[in-house]
Amino acid sequence: MKTKMLVTTLILAASTSAFAQGFQGTENNASGFNGPTQGITTIQQVFDAGTFSDDMPVTLTGNIKSSLGGEMYIFTDSTGEITIEIDNDKWMNQSATPENKVQIVGEIDKDISGTKIDVDVLRVM
After folding, report:
1. Which residue has the higher pLDDT, 66 or 16?
2. Which of 2, 3, 118, 119 allows an S-S link to 86, with CB 3.0 to 4.6 Å?
């Protein structure tokens, strides 16, 4: 019985440590990888993706140009600008100005009112 408790305790300690390391990694970089990204990486590619791109994942790097109020913002990169939605909990105690480069990870959201990006992860660079 003591052996089972010891083994269980060791497994729990190891898994807790691994979880904490993974969580720390996601705070700094959502994917745990810091390198090139494939897929949609510019605003122009978002608009070129066509009508079937709703919910398609994107990773964009640029600047938050201005606030539209609430959780809506204008995001720009070298190819254009697009409306993005950043829920308050996605800021993760970060702040940005129009001069700060940011990386956003999210999905394309297309509806009758237009195209925007729903942001899942925000990283101020």
Report:
1. 66
2. 119
Fold classification of 43-124 is OB fold (Dihydrolipoamide Acetyltransferase, E2P) (2.40.50)
List C-alpha distances in Å: 33 to 12, 24, 30, 42, 99: 26, 13, 8, 19, 25
Q: How do residues 21-53 score in pLDDT, each as one tens digit?
A: 333 333 444 455 666 667 899 999 998 887 678
Every domain of the chain and the residues it spans = 1-35, 43-124
Q: How far is CA 67 from CA 39, 46, 52, 75, 97, in A?
A: 27, 20, 28, 9, 10
